[in-house]
Amino acid sequence: MTSQEAKEILLLYRPDVDSDEAEFAPALDVIRTDPELQRWFEHHCALQKAIIASFDQLAVPEGLKEQILSERKVRTNLPSRRAIIAMALACIAILFTIGTLMFYNVPANSAKTFDNFRLRMAGKVLRDYPKMDLETADLSQIRAYLAAHGGEKGYALPEGLAKTSGTGCATFDWHGKKVSMLCFSSGKHGSLKNPDLFLFITDASTVKVPEDKATSKIKQLSTVSWTNNDKTYLLAAAGDERFLQSYAP
Fold this sequence. Notes:
By secondary structure, the chain is α+β, with helices and mostly antiparallel strands. Helices cover 41% and strands 18% of the residues.
């Protein structure tokens, strides 16, 4: 049996019910000597499990069975098990393809919303706090570094932040546009070397703030955003809204 023939047989394989079916044994034997086919089969099984799990979460509309039986006569000449499986898998494949296309064919602009921007910036702090391009407490050094390395220039710090010790800065891309990240430490959550205030600045053309000075809570972070001189600002603080507001404009 060739790998292609084995794959065609295994397309009907369902990991939850067919592990002991003799008809699949020859095809399963081929997998043991074909690493590429084995990778395909593992992906196939994972996909089947994901599809079945998603279908289990669907609620059956009340009265659907009675409606179907009232509109159509029950057929007595049921098709074979293999035909039923093939038909079911074909329907599932079509539904899965439609769902995949709907998921991935999202308009590009929808990924660039402010909500997504805020979540991504908060993730920078919560999940993978990035290594700073420059580590310093001197805010003038941070400003000079950003201006010299493609970061934001001419930004205006709120009065509270302007009086707060810095810890460093970094720049990174978001949908092809540059974002500057400035970190500060209030000293109220441990050492001055530990940042607890995170300011993200980008050009307003990158992402627009839908509601100026709107606050939001993302896990342990409180956030507030605003626009000033064609720049979008997002301030995240490791604390409650009261702590945040003492550093916001």
